[in-house]
Structures are given as structure tokens and as C-alpha cells.
């Protein structure tokens, strides 16, 4: 026997509470924000209005600023961009962490300036390794350093 369908509500019916979805979403976002972890475990930092991808990068920047004050390096620049072009075809761009001129004193006490690009890496991805090798091959006059 088929039940008869009616428009009447059952006796045990209680109207549902309407949920405040905005409040629920804000609570979830707060929970996920606390639990969110960056892919390689680094912590973004800010110092004097400049943003850094990791604490290690910030610490190295402070060391380089100190070296510049003492005159060991000159022309410190952040985020230098290099176009990587092979056979007149643009492959990609490489953005380093710093560019500076390192002053090295030879045996005759005459300083020699060496252009240097430095990158601060905790984890080297395959993409980074490829770009790094391209940079070294395309710009051999620059001293490429990892810190």
C-alpha cells in the first residue's frame, strides 16, 4: 500500500535554525589561518617596510647592510632581475635576492671589484637549479653565490 502524500507537516516537525554563514566562515578562516603552513616551512617577515620571504633572508640582508657600512661591498640592490635568452629566444626571467659589488684586495693592495648576485635558499627546487645553471652560463662575468 502506498502512503498518501499530503502537504501537512508531521507532528514532530521543528523548524530548523538558520545558521549565520558569515560567522561560521570567519571562524573557519581563523582556524585555517592559524593552521596554515607554508610549503617549505619559511616564515615571511617585514623590516622597515621591506618584505622578505624568510627569516634567513632577513638575517642575511642585515649582514649585507653591515658589510656595506664597513665598505666591504658596494651598490647593494635587492631583487635584481635577469632575462635568460638563448638563441634570441626569451626563456624566462631569474630574480635573485641581492646584487652587490664585492671589493677584494689583491697582493698589490689595489681593490678589485667583483659583481656578485646572491640568493638565499633553504630548499632548491628543480626549477631553481635549472635557472641557476642558465644564469651561470649566460652571465659568466658575474660571481653567483648561494647563501
Explain the overall architecture.
The structure is a single chain. Strands 3-6-7-8 form a four-stranded mixed β-sheet. Strands 1-2 form a two-stranded antiparallel sheet. It has a two-stranded antiparallel ribbon with strand order 4-5. 30% of the residues lie in helices and 31% in strands. The chain starts with 20 loop residues before the first helix and ends with a strand. The relative contact order is 0.11. The radius of gyration is 29 Å and the shape is flat. The chain has a domain at 45-146. The chain is of the alpha+beta class.
Descriptive terms for the model:
8 strands; alpha+beta; 3 helices; 147 residues
Structure described in brief:
With 147 residues, the protein is α+β, with helices and mostly antiparallel strands.
Low-confidence stretches: 10-14
What is the H/E order?
Answer: HEEHEEEEEHE
**Terminus-to-terminus distance:** 80 Å
Q: Please state roughly what percent of the residues sit in beta strands, choosing from under 5%, 5-15%, 15-25%, 25-35%, 35-45% or over 45%.
A: 25-35%
Mean pLDDT: 80
Number of helices: 3
Shape: flat
Radius of gyration: 29 Å
In what order do the strands lie side by side in the largest sheet? 3-6-7-8
Number of β-strand runs = 8
Find the structural class using helix and strand composition: alpha+beta
- Report on the biggest sheet: 4 strands, mixed
Helix content: 25-40%
Amino acid at each position: 500500500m502506498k502512503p498518501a502524500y499530503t502537504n501537512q507537516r508531521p507532528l514532530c516537525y521543528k523548524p530548523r535554525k538558520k545558521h549565520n554563514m558569515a560567522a561560521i566562515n570567519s571562524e573557519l578562516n581563523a582556524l585555517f589561518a592559524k593552521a596554515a603552513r607554508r610549503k617549505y616551512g619559511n616564515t615571511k617577515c617585514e623590516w622597515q617596510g621591506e618584505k622578505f620571504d624568510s627569516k634567513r633572508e632577513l638575517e642575511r640582508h642585515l649582514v649585507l647592510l653591515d658589510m656595506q657600512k664597513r665598505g666591504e661591498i658596494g651598490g647593494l640592490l635587492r631583487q635584481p632581475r635577469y632575462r635568460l635568452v638563448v638563441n634570441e629566444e626569451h626563456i624566462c626571467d631569474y630574480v635573485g635576492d641581492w646584487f652587490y659589488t664585492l671589493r677584494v684586495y689583491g697582493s698589490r693592495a689595489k681593490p678589485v671589484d667583483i659583481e656578485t648576485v646572491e640568493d638565499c635558499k633553504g630548499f632548491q627546487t628543480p626549477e631553481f637549479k635549472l635557472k641557476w645553471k642558465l644564469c651561470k652560463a649566460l652571465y659568466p662575468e658575474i660571481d653567483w653565490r648561494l647563501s
